[in-house]
Amino acid sequence: MTPPLPKAQPSLWLSLSGRITRGTYLLYFFAPLLVLRLLTMALDASSGGVGPMAIREAIRSAFGEEALSFTPFAGPASAVAVSVLLWPAAVGIVKRLHDLNVSGWVYAGFVGATLASWVILLISPQSDVARVPLYLLMPLALGLAVLVFFIGGTPGENRYGPDPLGRMDSDDPRAAAS
Predict the structure, then answer these.
(1) What angle is formed at CA 161 by the lines to CA 158 and CA 166, rounded to 5 degrees?
(2) Cα–Cα distance measured from residue 145 to residue 133, given in angstroms and rounded to the nearest whole number
(3) Would the pLDDT of 70 be above 60?
(4) Which terminus of the chain has a lower count of CB atoms within 10 Å, N or C?
(5) Which domain holds residue 49?
(6) Number of domains in the chain
(7) What is the pLDDT of residue 132?
(8) Could you tell me if residue 89 is inside a domain?
(9) pTM (2 decimals)?
C-alpha cells in the first residue's frame, strides 16, 4: 500500500530540499504546470501574440517559421508563464533527482548548458554549427526525463532525506528489527 500524497504546502514548491515520489511529481508539479502552459499557449495563439523579436528571429532563421509556434516564448502570456513557472519546475525536478540520490547540481548544469546553447544560437542564428549544442543536449534531456518520470527512488533514507514512500534500506538496522 502506498502512503498518501503529501499535503500541498508552499514549501513543496519553494524549497529545493527533500525528496518526492513520481506520483507527487506528476500530481503537484508536472500536470499543473503543463495545464497552465497549454492555457497560456492557447491564449497567445488566440490573441496573435508575438514574442521577443531577437528570440523570434533567431528561431525563425535557424529552424523555420513553423518552429515559432512551439517555442516557450511564442507570445506575451507564454513569456510570463515560463518566467513564473521556471522555479516550481526546477524544484520538482531537483526533488525527484534527490529521491534518486542524485545532486540537483546535475540539473543546474543541464540548464546552464541549455542557456549557453541558446545564447550561441542567438549570436549566430544562420550558422549550422550554432545548432549543434542544442542537438547534443537532446539525448541528455531524454535521459533526464527518463530519470524523473520512470525510475523509482532510492529505498530508505539517503543524503537528501527520508524515503517519501516510507521504505527502509535493507542495510538499515531498523529494517531487520521489523
Answers:
(1) 85
(2) 18
(3) no
(4) N
(5) 19-153
(6) 1
(7) 87
(8) yes
(9) 0.77
